[in-house]
Amino acid sequence: MTTSPTVETPAEATRAIPPLMSGARLSRAEFERRYHAAPDTLRAELVEGVVYVTSPIRYRQHGHPHAMIIAWWGAYAAATPGVELADSATVRLDLENEVQPDALLRLEGGGSRVGDDDYLEGAPELVVEIAASIAAYDLHDKKRAYMRNGVREYLAVQMYERRIDWFALRDEGYASLPVTDGILRSEVFPGLWLAVDAFWANDLARMLAVVQQGLATAEHAAVVARLTKPR
């Protein structure tokens, strides 16, 4: 007598895959296996081989400032050919780090590439993380991972302390960029200017006005000419 083959249901097929839990130490391959089996609503990162499952997002502490940064960076990307903006995209940095920065800016042909499965691989030029406090892992383990993998600039927003650090990669590690006349200025992306007080005042109009000033500089014109020059 011939028996019919057993067909696993989706629930049975994933039953043997353990859930992602904060604090677990996993390889990137095992992290991805468990992540693909997790509910679509779950968001997690692998930082220095340790899993971090993120909490629900608060409005004033994360959602609103995140949106302001996306709007600010969007204005810059729209005026700068060859620059791409992404929101919360998965980035495979190395075998122990698969992160989802709150936002990133990358150069086409720069330090990162889009893999065959549509995940970003390598180091984008600029990432931003919005942390509740300087005590968050964004300012420690994740910062070290970004630095070691060659992320050239890292914008760290600490909501509790009302502090913004814009780190630029140097031979000896990350160094803080200076605030001049109330403005932080990117080195990697000339013309990307942040009016610090406007950010804390929730004044998006002024943030956009200041970045327009940056976009009107000779430095930004030079980078546009370089990025659009035929190869």
Can you characterise this structure?
By secondary structure, the chain is α+β, with helices and mostly antiparallel strands. The chain has two domains: 19-53, no CATH class; 59-228, tt1808, chain A. Helices cover 31% and strands 27% of the residues. The protein is built from seven helices and 15 strands. The chain has helices at 10-14, 28-37, 59-78, 141-148, 196-200, 204-215, 218-228; strands at 44-47, 50-53, 83-87, 91-94, 97-99, 103-107, 112-114, 120-122, 126-131, 153-158, 163-170, 173-176, 179-180, 183-185, 193-195. The strands form four sheets. Strands 3-6-9-10-11-12 form a six-stranded mixed beta sheet. It has a four-stranded mixed beta sheet with strand order 5-4-8-7, with helices on one face. A three-stranded antiparallel beta sheet has the order 13-14-15.
Order of strands across the widest beta sheet? 3-6-9-10-11-12
Name of the CATH first level of the largest domain: Alpha Beta
CATH architecture group name of the largest domain: Alpha-Beta Complex
Number of strands: 15
Count of alpha and pi helical runs? 7
Order of helices and strands: HHEEHEEEEEEEHEEEEEEHHH
Q: Note the main sheet.
A: 6 strands, mixed
Percentage beta strand: 25-35%
